[in-house]
Design brief:
heterodimer; A: 668 residues; alpha+beta; five-stranded antiparallel beta sheet; 29% helix; elongated; B: 477 residues; alpha/beta; five-stranded mixed beta sheet; 10 helices; extended
């Protein structure tokens, strides 16, 4: 009986899953294909007086028999992309600014999936035979660069992308990864991204995307994540899921004068949607299944508030986790939340965070939605950090060689965790490093050195697994995947690699080559650590997209800085300088020769003899000339002297030419 | 008969002036009994096809067009062109009249496609160089806050479009896709008219109707680099501009409420039933366009599609010697129309191939310093060969093969023209040379000019002196 039930359960679940979109569409009395769309916004105050705004749009297209040719809500372009290039999974991000892992958190679902390296990052998994993956990748980059108005097509050349084996994601073979650290991201990338939304920025939460306020923030990352099960047998997956997120970190301008408290902490800035984005949400996108705004209070903040409450013996009924309360002793929310969700305690979890849920269904033009948060008491807290603080830098000087160093520093979290793990007896901290270096940075992998607590260590003691594919000149980049295992109680660690700088052909230099060359971020991930947040216990299917995203177990990872390597650059104007100098010299020579040839010596003498009374100016000039040449001023008579004077004139010309040449060489 | 055939004017639709072999078959035994001309046109057509269709296709691939003249009294003269390659003339006609009519049917309908002059010029054919055509159907909800319309395109595709796509296969490889867009207002203005009790937009506003800023129609990754896209748009106006009607230049209201734009596609304005928004409800009403309405819409689309291929959207042809009924096919295009399209397509391809190669040769001649790779020469050679093949096949009547090789000729010619090496060479200009050498020639020319000036001045002075001296000498003498 039990066996039968077990067998039945997946079928039941499957059928539930299958019927669900249909019943939904019937309720909406429209879309027969069952495509749906939802929009959500998460706001979170950050410890360094900034605010995180995370827009999350999700479109889904179920399996259809029409091969994805007919669409109602789902963007046609994306579906065609999936069909044409057999994309199984894909992620494209446009980022400007660097995520601050210490201040903004490094151990939560948002930082692990939305903190991205600056510029463009693209990875894709294809569902094609191994030998066709590269072709698919090239075609995909071209299609995406057309779709998003970006130079993603530079990722086409084999020197810019790599095929990570296990260092980045488990899918080996058909995964390709590439990034363009120098790509500038601006509105021309946002507009095509918005076009993929059914309401674009005409209605709904996306109306908040006021371009100036988004782009003046400290960090913004626009991301597109695609998961498709189109090529699996019918009914296995959920079709194509397109996730579009925009993560912005902005500094709310404090409206009131900041009162200074006796504590060292200042009052957190109060903000509202109008003060951040300059707009309000006047209506929801009518096509969205749900449009919800969340306000998240960090676990650290909640703990701090708890301790404040205990300290000050504020004992009031209006607790910040109770439902339907706008104001409490610490802060005031301008809109009454529809629901307050408290995070369920995880396995190794610390302080639970709290979510305030606001549904914007009931707001319209007459009463637009404008969420605000006003602080009453100064609070200081810190976000949960990643197990290790990661940074990467360059060593050495000169244009010939250098070294890349990755430094890892333990944070308080690692200390805690290691304490617990020590008590359990197993003591290791695994770190995965994935680094791609362009071919003109010739890394010598045998020079790998590992330092733990500033003591050099044997490489074999620390490096558990390593896969290296050395760069080939003008063909492929150098890829390094490493699994490191560090001992407990480690305070700091460093990895260094020496490299030589290569030479490029004159055609291969980018414009403004003197700025230097960017080395893409390395990815440091921690395979032992996973992060997830669960807010609801039930597995009900009407869970919002962002919450179900939070529930997924995502690996904790951190991107390092982009490195800027100066390479020797040729003097690009040199050919023109040479041309100019040569031409000037030739022209001077030609001119003097012409003058000499043209001169009639005898005639000039006759003229001079005739002009016994030269003009005043002429006399003056002659006097000056005599002074310069240092000869007595005397009217010349004989032919010999006249020839000598003409030769001195020639000498003068050569002198001038010499000065001109000198000028050209040193100042030209 | 021979005179009449020679009288046939040269047709503008690319077919060269060739001789037409006419087979006069006065033997009516085959027809009698097999065909009942009193039945309806469809049945007659089928019966004629059963009689004549068997024989066609044999031989050197040449298709045979048949005009049957049935001479009998009583009725007025009626001429019908069937769905296949047959036409028949019924009624009391004299022999000369019959011959004139038959010639007209052949020249104007079978060869020319019964096209109206000045509708769309025949030299444009909305089929890509690789022979593919993407039909993109878009349902546009101007403002989804008022109402949201959706359609069941899947069934439409299967029932209405699939036969047409199948029929067009010899001419173009058609793929169909659809999407629904929201928040896409039109960009032209419309005004309220009390006479019609509706909003009116006139034909002079049509160029501004398509709002290319907001209507993001043209993102099809499925369409390859050389395929052609046609957009068909169903526009559902918002509550502010409903009902929206199209006024023709003569003041009448368009019956179909739609218009086409050559080589782009067509637009249909679909007004909602009531045009009233239920204000109480916060959520917009959702509707699915009923199948009957959709069928009407697609009939209009079919007409537009035929017009884009420069065919008539109605089935009457008014010729010089009377009116001809054209039997419509349920597949959109009749067999003889497909023949016309095939010829047109071939001709268009050859024409564009010739233009491309012509401009390539002009380019090469204008830049004598340019280095041309052998590969380009090969491509040009193959393109010309393919074009020649297409021409011979077309004159033999093997339209499928000629369409294929004409396509090849065109794409090879374009390959040659857009070869990357030409691109880079054409940017190296004469100005570059000038810039390199000017630092030398500019100062040198200054010297030369100054020297010349001085010499000239000296010459003038000396000359004056010489003249003075000469005069003096004369005086002295």
């Amino acid at each position: 009986m039990a066996l039968l039930f077990l067998l039945l359960r997946p079928i039941l679940l499957l059928s539930l899953f299958h019927f669900y979109p249909i019943s939904q569409s019937e309720a909406a009395s429209g879309s027969p294909a069952g495509e749906d769309f939802s929009e959500e916004l998460l706001l979170r105050p950050l410890p360094d007086r900034k605010l995180l705004a995370h827009f999350h749009f999700q479109s889904r297209a179920p399996h259809t028999s029409s091969d994805g040719r007919h669409h109602h809500l789902f963007p046609k372009a994306i579906s065609q992309l999936v069909q044409k290039f057999h994309v199984k999974e894909m992620e494209l991000s446009f980022t400007q600014g660097r995520w601050n892992y210490d201040q903004w958190g490094g151990f939560d679902p948002i930082s692990s999936s939305n903190a991205k390296p600056p510029g463009v990052e693209l990875w894709a998994v294809f569902d094609v035979p191994h030998e066709q993956v590269d072709d698919s990748w090239k075609n995909l980059t071209h299609a995406l660069s057309g779709l998003f108005c970006a130079s993603i097509n530079f990722l086409e050349s084999s020197t810019t992308y790599s095929a990570p084996d296990w260092g980045y994601r488990p899918d080996s073979g058909s995964l390709r990864y590439g990034s363009l650290p120098r790509e500038a991201v601006c509105t021309e990338n946002l507009t095509p991204w918005l076009k993929l939304l059914p309401c674009r920025d005409k209605a709904g939460l996306s109306t908040l995307m006021d371009r100036p306020s988004i782009y003046k923030g400290y960090y913004h990352s626009q991301r597109l994540r695609l998961t498709s099960s189109e090529f699996e047998p019918e009914g296995v997956g959920s079709g194509i899921v397109l996730e579009q997120t925009l993560t912005v970190v902005v500094q709310p301008s404090s409206q009131r004068t900041v009162r200074s408290y006796s504590h060292e902490t200042k009052l957190q800035p109060s903000w509202s949607l109008t003060s951040i984005f300059g707009r309000k949400v006047s209506s929801r996108c009518v096509l969205a299944k749900s449009s919800i705004v969340y306000l998240q209070l960090d676990g650290g903040l909640i703990a701090e508030l708890d301790s404040l409450q205990n300290e000050n013996k504020i004992y009031s009924a209006d607790n910040y986790v109770s439902e339907g309360v706008r104001s409490n002793a610490f802060f005031e929310v301008s809109v009454k939340p529809d629901r307050v969700l408290k995070e369920l305690k995880g396995v190794e979890k610390k302080n639970p965070s709290v979510l305030y849920e606001f549904s914007i269904d009931k707001y319209d033009e007459s009463g637009p939605f404008d969420l605000g948060l006003t602080w009453k008491v100064p609070v200081a807290w810190s976000c949960q950090k990643a197990p290790l603080h990661v940074s990467r830098f360059l060593m050495g000087s000169g244009n010939e060689r250098g070294a890349i160093a990755i430094s890892l520093r333990s944070t308080e979290l690692t200390d805690e965790l290691l304490h617990t793990e020590k008590s359990e007896g197993r003591c290791k901290l695994e770190v995965k490093v994935f680094q791609v270096v362009p071919w003109y940075i010739k890394v010598y992998f045998h020079t790998l050195q590992v330092f733990v607590n500033e003591e050099p260590q044997a490489v074999s003691d620390v490096v558990e697994k390593m896969r290296v594919s050395p760069s080939v000149d003008k063909l492929s980049p150098g890829v390094m995947e490493m699994l490191l295992k560090f001992p407990c109680g480690m305070k700091s660690a460093a990895i260094t690699l020496d490299f030589d700088k290569g030479f490029l052909h004159i055609d291969e230099y980018p414009p403004d080559a003197n700025q230097g060359f960017d080395i893409p971020s390395a990815i440091i991930s921690f395979p032992n650590f996973h992060t997830s947040m669960q807010f609801l216990k039930d597995d009900s299917s009407d869970k919002s997209a962002i919450l179900s995203k939070f529930e997924e177990n995502s690996a904790v990872l951190a991107y390092t800085e982009v490195l800027l390597v100066p390479l020797t650059t040729p003097d690009f104007s040199m050919p023109y300088n040479v041309i100019t100098i040569t031409c000037t010299v030739c022209a001077l020579y030609f001119g003097s020769l012409l003058n000499v040839l043209r001169r009639r010596v005898g005639e000039e003498e006759r003229l001079k003899n005739k002009e016994k009374e030269p003009g005043r100016l002429r006399q003056l000039l002659f006097r000056l000339y005599a002074k310069i040449t240092g000869r007595p001023l005397e009217p010349v008579e004989s032919t010999t002297t006249s020839s000598s004077s003409s030769s001195s004139k020639l000498g003068f010309i050569i002198l001038v030419a010499g000065i001109a040449v000198f000028w050209q060489v040193y100042y030209g | 008969m021979a005179e009449l055939t020679r009288q046939t004017p040269q047709c503008g639709t690319c077919s060269p002036n060739h001789s037409v072999s006419v087979l006069l078959d006065s033997d009516s035994h085959r027809l009698v009994g097999a065909v009942d001309f009193d039945g309806d046109d469809e049945a007659v057509d089928e019966a004629l096809q059963a009689v004549f269709g068997v024989g066609s296709g044999s031989g050197a691939g040449g298709e045979v067009y048949t005009v049957v003249v049935v001479n009998r009294g009583g009725e007025e003269v009626r001429a019908v062109v069937g769905k296949y390659r047959n036409a028949w003339i019924l009624g009391r006609v004299s022999e000369a009249e019959a011959v004139a009519k038959a010639a007209e049917v052949f020249v104007k309908v079978f060869v020319n496609g019964g096209k109206e002059e000045g509708l769309i010029h025949g030299e444009f054919m909305p089929v890509g160089a690789d022979g593919t055509l993407v039909l993109s159907f878009n349902l546009l909800n101007a403002d989804p806050r008022d109402w949201i319309y959706d359609w069941d395109f899947q069934t439409v595709d299967e029932i209405l479009l699939a036969p047409m796509v199948e029929a067009m296969k010899p001419v173009a490889n058609i793929s169909v896709e659809s999407q629904v867009l929201y928040h896409v207002p039109k960009s032209s203005l419309s005004y309220w008219d009390d006479n019609w009790d509706s909003y009116i937009f006139s034909t002079k506003d049509l160029p501004f109707f398509v709002n290319s800023n907001e209507w993001h129609l043209d993102t099809s990754i499925a369409a390859g680099g050389r395929s052609k896209m046609l957009h068909f748009v169903v526009y559902v106006p918002s509550a502010k501009e409903c009902p929206l009607l199209l006024q023709l230049p003569d003041g009448q209201i368009s019956k179909t409420n739609s218009f086409i734009s050559p080589m782009w596609g067509g637009v249909i304005v679909l007004n909602t039933q009531t045009c009233r928004k239920d204000s109480e409800s916060k959520h917009p009403s959702r509707h699915t366009i009923l199948h009957e309405d959709l069928q009407k819409v697609f009939e209009v689309f079919m007409g537009q599609f035929r017009q884009l291929f420069s065919f008539k959207s109605d089935n009457l042809y008014v010729g010089a010697s009377g009116t001809y009924n054209l039997l419509p096919s349920e597949r959109g295009f009749t067999l003889w129309e497909l023949d016309v399209l095939s010829r047109m397509h071939t001709c268009f391809n050859l024409h564009s191939c010739a233009t491309t190669l012509g401009s390539l040769s002009r380019l090469v001649q204008s830049l004598p310093r340019m280095i041309i790779k052998d590969e380009i020469g090969k491509q040009v050679k193959y393109s010309l060969e393919a074009a020649k093949l297409a021409q011979t096949n077309a004159s033999l009547g093997v339209y499928d093969a000629s369409a294929v090789s004409s396509r090849q000729a065109r794409s090879l010619a374009e390959d040659a023209f857009f070869h990357p090496s030409i691109m880079s060479v054409s940017y190296y200009s004469f100005e570059h040379c000038f810039a390199v050498y000017s630092p030398f020639f500019l100062p040198v020319s200054m010297h030369v000019i100054l020297a010349a000036l001085r010499e000239w001045r000296r010459y003038k002075k000396e000359n004056k002196k010489y003249l003075v001296w000469k005069a003096k000498m004369k005086d002295a003498l």
